[in-house]
Amino acid sequence: MKYTIVIQWSNEDDCFVVFLPEFEDVMQPVTHGETYQEAFNNAQEVLELLVESSLEEGKELPEHKQFFEKVLAKG
């Protein structure tokens, strides 16, 4: 399964914050990190927990949303 991870710097929080747009029923941002890599690692962990708990509860997983069109350059 592929889900979108949005990481952006927050001046207010002085850290990178993470949003998981497919998981609309979860409070956003879902996690954070002092570095981009830490935020990404935390995002992966949260995603795993969300998928695992959804499956255990018998909930449907959200469908992947296409946010950007892939642009292919023709040679």
List keywords for this structure.
alpha+beta, single chain, 75 residues, 1 helix
Q: TL;DR?
A:
Helix content is 28%, strand content 17%.
Structural description of this entry:
- The structure is a single chain.
- This protein is an alpha+beta fold and 75 residues long.
- It has one domain (1-75).
- Helices cover 28% and strands 17% of the residues.
- It has one helix and three strands, in the order E-E-E-H.
- It has a three-stranded antiparallel sheet with strand order 1-2-3, with helices on one face.
- The longest helix has 21 residues, at 36-56.
- The radius of gyration is 14 Å and the shape is globular.
- The model has no long low-confidence stretch (mean pLDDT 91).
| Low-pLDDT regions | none
Major sheet: 3 strands, antiparallel
What is the rounded Rg? 14 Å
Strand order of the largest sheet: 1-2-3
Write the layout of secondary structure elements.
Blueprint: E1 6-10, E2 15-19, E3 31-33, H1 36-56
Antiparallel strand pairs: 1-2, 2-3
